[in-house]
Amino acid sequence: MAAQTEIFSKRVRDVMGAPPVACGPGTKLADVVALLSRSGQSSAVVVDADRRPVGILTEQDIARRVTFQHGPEIAVEAVMTRPVAVAEADDYLYRAIARMRRQHRRHMPVVDDGHRLVGMLDLTETLAAAASRTMGQIERLTQEGDVAGLRQVKAAQADIAEELLEDNLPAPDIQALLTDINRDIHRHLAETATQAMQERGRGPPPVASALIVMGSGGRGESFLFPDQDNGFIIADYPDDAHDRIDGYFIEFATKLTADLDAIGIPYCQGHVMATNPLWRKTLSQWRHQVALWAKRRGGEAVLNADIFFDFQPVWGEAALAAALRADITKIAASHPNFLATMARDDSGHGVGLDWLGRFRTGTGGRFDIKRHATVPLVESVRLLALVDGLEQTSTLGRLGALRARGRLDANDHDELVAAFEHIGFLLLRQQLADYRAGRPVGNLVRLESMSRPEKSALRRALKSIGSFRRRARADATGEILGG
Question: Exposure of 77 by Cβ count < 10 A (0-12 exposed, 13-18 middle, 19+ buried)?
Answer without folding.
Answer: middle
